[in-house]
Specification:
Elements: H1 2-21, E1 26-27, H2 33-39, H3 45-58, H4 75-81, E2 85-86, H5 90-97
Helix pairs in contact: 2-3
């Protein structure tokens, strides 16, 4: 009986791990480097900072594919995160949240 219980608990814990590691949607035109690194798979602090610097220098991203213009971001990372990448102009984000 105890072994069946342990197996069930292990299965429950194993099923929750992917949910805990799942990245969330992020607006790449408004997020800071910490948020980008936390929410996008395969993006660490250095790549996140490169994304922010590219955005500051070149203006907002118009499509997820624009991330490929950032040094260190490749097709694999883009595809890993495509479902979590949001594109909205920073002004639209501020109006929607009421923040300036």
């Amino acid at each position: 009986m105890k072994e069946g219980y342990r197996t069930a608990v292990r299965a429950l814990i194993a099923s929750l791990i992917p949910a805990l590691a799942w990245a969330g949607p992020v607006n790449i035109n408004a997020a800071d480097a910490n948020t980008l690194a936390r929410e996008l798979d395969g993006i660490g602090p250095a790549k996140a900072q490169a994304i922010v610097e590219y955005r500051q220098k070149n203006g907002p991203f118009r499509s997820p594919e624009d991330l490929l213009k950032v040094q260190g971001i490749g097709q694999r990372v883009l595809e890993q995160n495509r479902g979590n990448i949001r594109i909205a102009a920073p002004a639209q984000t501020q109006k929607a949240t009421g923040k300036t």
